[in-house]
Amino acid sequence: MSEQPDLQTLESELSAQVAAAAGMTELEDVRVSALGKKGVISERMKTLGKMDPEQRKAAGQALNQLKTTVAEAIAARQAELKEAELEARLATEFVDVTLPVRPETAGTIHPVSQVWEEVVQIFADLGFAVAEGPHIETDWYNFGALNIPDDHPARQEHDTFYLTPKEDGSRMVLRTHTSPVQIRTMQQGELPIRIIAPGRTFRSDSDLTHTPMFHQLEGLVLDETTHLGHLKWCLEEFCKAFFEVDEVKMRFRASHFPFTEPSMEVDIGCSWSDGQVKIGVGDDWMEILGSGMVHPNVIRAGGLDPDKVQGFAFGMGIDRLAMLKYGIPDLRAFFDSDLRWLRHYGFSALQMPNLAGGLS
Fold this sequence. Notes:
11 helices, two-stranded antiparallel ribbon, 360 residues, 39% helix, 10 strands, disordered N terminus, BirA Bifunctional Protein, domain 2, 2 domains, 8-stranded mixed sheet, alpha+beta
């Protein structure tokens, strides 16, 4: 008969501890000391096995009742503490609606991002889809499949970022152009192909007009009938839309690229006045991109038959286009994260380019 008074005393002690808990941490300590695996009530539960059946029944009921009572007291105290905490926060955290609105930092769209979207909008209107590929490529996708010979300068260490050689001696490479996307698209075997591949590229170079990381855009059209006239029309329409002029003079100069044959550099007519370039007027010329008919070896590397499939490809620098259109003199400033520069050359987040409302 000594067990019952002892449990009553224990209940009083635990109730006092619960009531005295001034915070959630202290209340949790009380809960663990009473109801935890090694708590005082749990330890008492372990003694039930040593009692005879009659004693075990009575003691078990009393301990379970005590456990329920303590748990309810803890839950009630927890609710009280939360309510007190909320009232304290409401008393200290408030907003004076009569105060003037604080100015928010106004972010801008980077010129590269703006031009990227402008170019995508134009070529989407011409029926091109956007294709993507990995930044880290194999030597074959980046060079071999594009008909670039083993002794080509682009393969040298001073021009290309190579990764650590593998056990078999092969090395992955940070792609030097987005042309590997053309090969990956051809390998899907679905004709006709009309894609552009904008993305980051990497070369070991840095000056006013070159950076180790820059942005390029490749274009590819393949089917059974596409010819050089389609290429010239496509590039002319792009230049008129991008530079937002009604007419543009274009000049195609014979050149050499391993992945096209014939290959052509493309110049557009312009004029220079007070250090600024104007597109579509004047008698000067400025190179903007490279292009040509896709080399049969490249078509073959993509898994297609060059006797049945033909088409054109072109490539241009997105950063360079941004410099020409918006009068930015130094390419390196694109990556300096200078807020003053970004505020000056940046675009409003709501100024999304579209052909109907104007690109810029």
